[in-house]
Specification:
Elements: H1 2-20, E1 31-39, E2 42-45, E3 48-59, E4 65-66, E5 76-82, E6 88-93, H2 96-100
Parallel strand pairs: 3-6
Antiparallel strand pairs: 1-2, 1-5, 2-3, 3-4, 5-6
Amino acid sequence: MKRFAARLFFLLAIGLASAAAQIRTLPVDAERGFIRHIEGNVVSMNGKQMRLAPGASIRTPENLIIVPTSLPPQGALADYQLDRDGQIFRVWLLTREEAARQRKKR
């Protein structure tokens, strides 16, 4: 029984350590903006209507992928990348800590 408890504790400790190690890295070439859903695949980025590219991904602060209609109704601060056609291809909704970090000058 003691061996079982020790093994269980060890496995839980490894699981918690690996979960804590999952820190996302945002691309340095990503733009920063305020995103809101308008309709369908159209969003507002910094007040300008833009289309989401086919296959675009939107990630929450928890790094879950969501559909555009699941964006917060009031909008959210985000980092994003455009595809070669100028459509929004990847979006990362920012945590408070990520939003507070200074952007590196390019």
